[in-house]
Amino acid sequence: MKIPLLQVERIRQHFGDTAALVDVSFELPEDQILTILGPSGCGKTTLLRIIAGLQKPDEGTVWINGQKMNGTGTWVAPQQRSVGMIFQTLALWPHLTVEGNIGLGLKARGIKKADRDSTIEEVLEKLQMVQHLKRYPHTLSVGEQQRVALARALVLQPRLLLLDEPFSHLDLDLREDLITLIKGLTATIIFVTHDQHDALAMGGLLAIMCKGRLEQIGKQEEILQNPATEFVRYFVRRSTGLFNG
Amino acid sequence: MTPSKAFILGLSLVLFALIALAPPGMLLLNLFSFSPKISIWKWLLERQVHLLTLHSLNMALVATVTALALGLPVGLALGSKRKPLLFGIIFFLPLAIPPYLTASCWMGLLGRGGILPHLAHEWLGMDARSSWLGGAWGAGIVLGLSYFPVLTYMVISGMRRLDAHLEEAAMFALPENGILRKITLPLLFPQIGTGLLLVFLLAITNYAVPSLLGIRTFTVKIYTYFSVFQDIGGAVLLSLPLLLICLVCVLLLHHIMKGRVFFSLQQGEEMGGSLLRLLNSKLFKILACGPALFVTCTPILFLLFQTGSFLSLKIAVDQAKESILTSFVLALFASFCISIVAFVSGYALERTKWGKGGVTRSLFFFPFALPSVLLSIGVIFFWNRPGIVLVYQSLLIITILWGAKYLPLAQRVLADHIRQIPLEMEEIAFLSQLSWTKSLCRIVWPLARPGFLVAWAVTYIFCLSELGGTLLVIPPGADTMPVRLYNIMHYGSSSLLAALGLVLIMMTIIPMGLLVWCGKGIKGLRD
Ligand SMILES: Nc1ncnc2c1ncn2[C@@H]1O[C@H](COP(=O)(O)OP(=O)(O)OP(=O)(O)O)[C@@H](O)[C@H]1O
Ligand SMILES: [Mg+2]
After folding, report:
1. pLDDT by residue (tens digit) across B357-379?
2. Is A153 in Cβ contact with B431 (below 8 Å)?
3. Which of the residues A12, B149, B154, B514 could staple to B195 if both were Cys, CB 3.0 to 4.6 A apart?
4. Which ligand has its closest atom nearest to the C-alpha of A19?
5. Whose CA is nearest to atom 29 of ligand 1?
6. Residue A239: pLDDT band by 50, 70, 90 thresholds?
7. Residues A71, A168: one domain?
8. d(C-alpha B106, C-alpha B124), whole Å
9. Which residue from B450, B457, B454 is spatially nearest to B508, judged by alpha carbons?
10. A46 C-alpha to center of ligand 1: Å?
11. Domain assignments of chain B as residue spans, ordered by start
């Protein structure tokens, strides 16, 4: 059997007294989209940060492509994990243009200017953003900024793409556009949201989190039909209610 | 932590420790080896110490009150929504005039045999022999006139971060002056408190002004003990009560500053600012800025008047060419090096776990709160070693002294600035496969540059005019502008003093003007 691209094994994380993550384990096969859905403060961002290597978990292990990322004596830095991420805040570098924002990672890899330019153009074309190449982030609309953040992550062709509520503050049309765009990518993606609507629109695998625990993970339809816990049932009822009305 | 990160941060901290922490630290650790015979208690109980405390506190408190009276209204006026640009100049100019120069100007105007007492005698028949500017009060006022922009800057930076909605929300419930008293001023309290404490510290550690006005403060006595009696032990012992006062200030400062950012440079000009009509009115602006403008321009006009002609200015410059060059190059070099070390060590302080601790922060800021005369004794004690005589005998020793005093301040400015850069800006760089070093150069550095420029400017201004400590460490034969001015104040002519004073002021204003101009240019390009 093929090893899954990502394996997360009994992750625990505490911040003082709050348990942000409690025994979270799951696997994600290659080229699948996993949507993690959960209310605010349930530990979604923390989980993504641990997968990306921005934070060491108190306990538990992350494996990417069968390679151990952390553990006693092992630590793979975020630079070496080949993980792309979009933060809730986007974190575009305000002192660089769109081109600079996207090209910096390529430059760090030592790719030549001509190759860089063509790669950047290719990515921006996919996102319909070529005309904004020379603009600074603060002159772009929020939707355009989101596309730049996506382009910055995509251009390095990461094995795994982590999206932390990239659509907060977007209107419905733009969300649907971007969701279609993301669904069209051939990549392994974890998409985090607290919005049931977005989660259902994304399709693929669905995971429900609550208070640091992973309540259920599986195909979307399965979860809708057989919610495993009371909380999932409640969440599902709300979301289907949303969907129908 | 990668090896290169550990190395760079470690190096900056070692440099910081060698320059700023080791000199005063070694001095205090060796306290008992200097003068084992004298009991501390006997010293502290001697009447002299009480008098020194009284004078020093008196001077510093008067300075603080003066700064409050002048600086707070200016800050409120300049920090309001509509900013009078013209008046912006008074928020900078007083800092360009070193306090001892201000003191000598006001002495020339109000002191014994000064112009105004003289005129009063001629026209009104008043007693002209006594000085109108004497005692700790006079020194305090002069220091307040020099340092009020520190408070002004704090208030402005506080007002820029003020959320105008908080005022708007109160408009339904309170009249204008009620909002000012109940909302705006309380919101600004931390900044006002910090500004006042900084002015207090700058005043109580000042040596040149009390020495010039003949007031026996701690700094003057410490200087005398060291340079006249050659008694390190006595000087250090004498400084203990002052150290206690400064320590209390630093702890208070830490308490007020807890978790807040004080040195902020907002990018958008339109952002922030009070909406109150009271503060935005023309009348308030004139009433607030008028007095400050008056006390700022008077010394400069006095210097111009005393210089007399362009020719005497030229003669003075020709005569002092070497000191001008030394001062300029040295201050430029020192402020640049200090700001670089401050940038990296400020990063270390801000972005590592241990750096966030209150003890570390207070300890790292403490050298700034020490009088430079004491620091210079520490620098001599620590750096005057057989293996490295070259350091001690060259101008490098002055750079080190300035570093000891101003590195902590620059570090605080930069640490505060780095805190305002979201950590995610760096994390996304790591995920884009930039190494830590690359992310420092390409992400953190450009984003922290405004803070770097502020730190550099502040350090440059303070280094250029530093006097008390420089007098003690300056190698024989060398000469900086303040030292030359100081000598002229005692032995030279008043027109030469005025001319060189003007030169020193221009040495501050011109680089700052260039900086602002270039900054505008860069900003213009970006928008
Ligand atoms: N650095 C930190 N220090 C202390 N507590 C933290 C820290 N980071 C997260 N937490 C806490 O951990 C819990 C989970 O936080 P997390 O940001 O992962 O939630 P989230 O699911 O992403 O929420 P949201 O949907 O609002 O973004 C919260 O209770 C939060 O307060
Ligand atoms: Mg989150």
Report:
1. 788 888 999 999 999 999 999 99
2. yes
3. B154
4. 1
5. A41
6. low
7. yes
8. 21
9. B457
10. 6
11. 46-307
Q: Which domain holds residue A60?
A: 1-82+159-218
Looking at the fold, whether A62 and A19 belong to one and the same domain comes out as yes
In a domain, residue A227? The reply is no
Paired strand residues for A189: A33, A161
Position A245 in a domain: no
Residues A146-156 have pLDDT tens digits of: 889 999 999 99
> In terms of domains, do A68 and A99 share one?
no
Residue in A closest to B1 by C-alpha: A77
Burial letters B404-427, b for 16+ CB under 10 A, else e: bbbbbbbbbbbbbbbbbbeebbbb
**Domain presence at residue A174:** yes
Rounded distance between C-alpha atoms, residue B218 and residue B241, angstroms = 9
* B429 to A109: CB separation less than 8 angstroms, yes or no: no
**Probe target for ligand 1 pocket from A40, A45, A162, with the most ligand atoms within 8 Å of CB:** A45
- The mean pLDDT value for B110-129 works out to 74
Residues A71 and A99 in one domain: no
Count up the domains in chain A and report the number: 2
- Kindly report, residue by residue over B131-187, the tens digit of the pLDDT: 667 788 889 999 999 999 999 988 888 887 777 777 777 777 777 777 888 888 888
Contacts of B443 in chain A (CB under 8 A): 93
pLDDT at res. B407: 96
Q: Are A29 and A60 contained in the same domain?
A: yes
CATH topology of domain B46-307: MetI-like fold (1.10.3720)
pLDDT of B527 > 50? The answer is no
Q: Is A60 on the interface with B (CB under 8 A)?
A: no
> What pLDDT, in 10s, does the model give residues A118-129?
999 998 988 888
Q: Please give, one letter per residue, the 3-state secondary structure of A190-234.
A: EEEECCHHHHHHHCCEEEEEECCEEEEEEEHHHHHHCCCCHHHHH
Structure tokens at A18: 């709050």
Residue A120's CB is within 10 A of a number of other CB atoms, namely 22
Question: Do A73 and A104 have their domain in common?
Answer: no
Q: Tell me what ipTM this predicted complex has.
A: 0.88
Q: Whose CA is nearest to atom 17 of ligand 1?
A: A45
Percentage of chain B surpassing pLDDT 70? 89
